[in-house]
Specification:
Elements (H helix, E strand, L loop, with lengths): L1 E3 L2 E3 L6 E5 L3 H13 L3 E6 L2 H11 L3 E5 L7 H9 L6 E6 L7 H5 L5 E4 L5 H8 L1
Helix pairs in contact: 2-3
Length: 129
């Protein structure tokens, strides 16, 4: 933590992020929001197969992963990512509330869950610290 002029300020988190969502509009919004808050978005994928391939190729530190994908679900992708050599921090997201996934979230290896409507750099940083 840095201290400036008597006030404590928190240095921004700088982490590489892969955004996985089947909606291009959400990917654009998430990229703009996260980059504005200091994250380095290194790639985007629209489905689970693309997510796994890009995660292996790019080795992001964080994967922001939609729960509902056209070819699989985020929970299965999370498990597959954890089987690799370089394991990113996986944060699940959805337009649905976390209560919809309570049991699956408890058994998941994901770092946590952020509703799409609450996505922010601060929320993501809190889960990956």
């Amino acid at each position: 933590m840095r201290v400036a002029a008597g006030r404590a300020t928190i240095r921004p988190v700088t982490a590489t992020v892969l955004i996985v969502d089947d909606h291009a509009g959400f990917r654009r919004l998430a990229r703009a929001l996260l980059e504005a808050e200091g994250f380095d978005v290194v790639g985007e994928a629209a489905d689970g197969a693309g997510a796994v391939a890009l995660a292996r190729a790019l080795s992001p530190e964080v994967v922001l992963l939609d729960v509902a994908l056209p070819d699989t679900d985020g929970f299965a992708v999370c498990e597959e990512l954890h089987a690799g050599a370089a394991v990113p921090a996986v944060v699940l997201t959805s337009s649905r509330d976390a209560r919809s996934f309570r049991r699956r979230l408890q058994g998941s290896r994901a770092r946590g869950f952020i509703p799409k409507s609450e996505l922010s750099g601060a929320a993501l940083a809190a889960l990956i610290r």
